[in-house]
Amino acid sequence: MATTSEDVESTYEAFIDHVKRLHYVGDAGGVLQWDQQVMMPDAGTPARAKQSSAISTLHHELLTDDQLAGWLDELGDADLDAEQEAVVREVRRDHERAVRVPSDLVERLSEASSNALPVWKEAKADDDFDAFADTLREMVDLRREYAEAIDPDRDPYEVLFEEYEPYLGIDTAEAVLTTLREELVPLIDDIAASDVTLASPFEGTYDDDTQHALVEAALDTLGYDWDRGRLDTAPHPFSTGTQFDARVTTRFTPDDPLDALGSTIHEFGHATYTQGLPREEYGTPLGDNRDLSVHESQSRFWENHVGRSRPFWDLFAPTVNDHLGTDATPREFYEAANEVYDDNLIRVEADELTYHMHIVLRFEIERDLIRGDLEVEEVPQVWNDKMEQYLGVRPDTDAEGCLQDIHWTNGAIGYFPTYSLGSVLAAQLAHHVDADVDDFDGTVRAGEFGPIHEWLTEHIHRHGARYTTDDLIEEATGEAFSADYFVEYADEKYRDLYDC
Predict the structure, then answer these.
(1) Taking 80 as the threshold, does the pLDDT of residue 276 lie above it?
(2) Which of 47, 109, 176, 219 is the most exposed place for a label (fewest CB within 10 A)?
(3) Which residues are catalytic?
(4) What pTM was computed for the model?
């Protein structure tokens, strides 16, 4: 037990050196995953699976190391400052979860995830769920085993959810999803009954190079730091990296350039959060993001409260017209960016409102899979039934149904609720940014995004994982997490657009 300040300092220095090595290994694994989805040739999977497995096993060994456990015990009763206490809290939580999981299970999970990716790609391309069923069954079984290892006495889905959002709680997630279902469905029904038709300024198709130049221009406009990032394409858009290297990916739909533009702005939000983390704290929780609800709030803030706003289209409409050869007004682009679709099959192409019904559907299915209340072979039928129930459409193929997402392929079960939690938090943050930034709309319209970046960095990014999620929200906004802002924002915006 450390008893003097010198002993505590020495212990903490040894502890933090170990923590940094742990983070560096994890980040190296992230680069391997990025490469597999973006650059790696298809035939590289067998070697990549072994490489990723080795990295995951090494990371697990560092996180469960007996010496780390000893340092955590010594520092538990030590007189630490607030930032040191936060680091110890975050590492202790990860350590206590990881130490319960056997190394061979970590290795099997990593290898299974790498092997699953090409199986999913081929099954989706061939519209063949049966070709993916055994892979999904293996992943569900492994994630059940993982949850049971951490805590056999608790709901396994709750244990998995806490992997992505450790502090808000599954009860909060379920309450938010219930609120959104209850509040948004009547609004969506009123929009469907409206006789208003929003503008559709795009005709024909737009090649990848043209769209690539357009989304690059969007990233330039919003203030993406190219010295610490890059843009690529991937089957499923994502962002990954560190404050020194935060990359974004997008994908192009020939007849819908707003798809690529929206997904790029979304991933920009993730990347600008990552780029805004304190550089001097890299390798520690103080230089790491505050989990996925907060991360998603940053992407949704930029995608929805900036990229789908009328002031943004006042700014960006000429750029779109120049790149695509269109001749539309800012109002027409604004309407097109906010259309609520009646044929909403694909989550990543969904509008801002019906998107959350996609999340409810996935949440219910993956929860029931993990709890053993749903068999893998039942997924396509249940998926299609829920699509019809919640969204009024029924997929004709599994490729546009239960095979459309990558998340279950890489074992990210419990992840989906954070999308809606993040959207709700984005609206709460947007309310306070609007109140604190002088003439928010004028700032966006002028393309002067510096004050917005500064607000988000000051209130969110610079803190890393110093605060728990709920405490960070209190610190940033002065109030508790609430879905009220999102409900009010959605109701006001869409009833105005659709005159309903």
Answers:
(1) yes
(2) 47
(3) 267
(4) 0.94
